[in-house]
Amino acid sequence: MRITVNRKKERYYPDSKRVITRFFAHLEMKAKSIISKILDMSEQEAEISLNQVLREFAKRHRNIIKIFLTNYAKVSQYINEFPENPEKMSSTKRLLVGSFFTMEY
Q1: Is pLDDT of 8 > 80?
Q2: Residue 65 clears pLDDT 90, i.e. is over it
Q3: CA torsion, ordered 76, 77, 82, 83, to nearest 10 deg
Q4: Which of 12, 50, 97, 101 could pair covalently with 71 via S-S, beta carbons 3.0-4.6 A apart?
Q5: Would you state the pLDDT for residue 59?
Q6: 69 domain-assigned
Q7: Residue 4 counted as domain residue
Q8: Within 13 A of 33's CA, how many CA atoms are on the CB side?
Q9: How many structural domains comprise the chain?
Q10: CA neighbours closer than 13 Å in the CB half-sphere of residue 54
């Protein structure tokens, strides 16, 4: 059976003003694995990764740093289980952890 398709001239494109973020909860084991990989990064690697993420997200969100810090706070209980002191973690790594738990919708 054949279906006839009639293409229209109208095109619909995504609107970046209609994108929101939300917390992306991973399973506990996956969350710990992500955090562990970020903690193992050098400070330079973390800065490069964070700059890439900020370049991508900042176009669509006004206060993306605040969102990343909020999401970091939501997973901070997992960070307390690592030997590294969470107070000594750099702000770059905190933001990077928060970014890994942020999704766009």
Answers
A1: yes
A2: yes
A3: 90
A4: 101
A5: 84
A6: yes
A7: no
A8: 5
A9: 1
A10: 16
The range of the structural domain enclosing residue 53 comes to: 40-104
Burial (CB count within 10 angstroms: exposed 0-12, middle 13-18, buried 19+), residue 50: buried
Place of tokens 């619909």: 12
Tokens of residue 60, six digits: 């669509």
Angle at 79 between CA 74 and CA 85, to 5 degrees: 130
What pLDDT is stored for residue 46 in this prediction?
Answer: 95
pLDDT tens-digit series, residues 51-60: 999 998 888 8
* Distance from chain centroid for Cα 88: 21
Q: Is residue 73 part of a domain?
A: yes
Separation between Cα atoms, residue 46 and residue 62, nearest integer Å: 22
- The count of other CB atoms within 10 Å of the CB of residue 30 is 10
Q: Could you give the 3-state DSSP secondary structure of residue 23?
A: strand
- Could you tell me if residue 76 is inside a domain? yes
